[in-house]
Amino acid sequence: MHKLIVVLAALAAAGVSIGLVAPAWAATQLHEDGTGFVTGADARAALGWDDETLQANAASLEFVAESESVTEISWECAKPGTSEVLARRTDLVITETRGIASTPSMLWGRTVVGFRLEGFDGRGASSAAPDGPAPHSCPDPSWLLVPGSSRTVEEKGEPVLAVVHSGVQYPVPSPVPSPVPVG
Known about the structure:
The chain is α+β, with helices and mostly antiparallel strands. The protein has three helices and nine strands. It has helices at residues 2-21, 40-47, 51-57; strands spanning 29-30, 35-39, 62-78, 85-107, 111-131, 144-145, 151-156, 160-165, 168-171.
């Protein structure tokens, strides 16, 4: 009986320490506030590494979230004295990269099983790239902007999580959704 209690206590202690190290769901997730978890398997897959290489380099890895939004601006120009109307459009693509504070999650203090994402850390950059003519511009001065014709539509993309090693970003694989039973 004494051996059974010792074994159960040891298993409970191991279960508690595992539970504190890796989230119960043990899947890669990124929340809106930059918190979440990256499994060691997903980090290895992103980097193309084996487990030994991950263990050796875990402390040097960083994580970022990159998102892209596209703002479509459309308008019309008319040529006075004619019935000619010209539809115009430009897309503004904005890419934002935000750094994420992280800590390796260790199993028994030695083996990296994943990375705890602790929130955005203030590092970041953004870039904007227009594709098309300047907003509300007409081909030449003989054309005039049609009042009230301007429309703006913005599409925000979901953030893509990436692991950074030696200054190079590698997208972390997205979790595959579970199949939905048909029936």
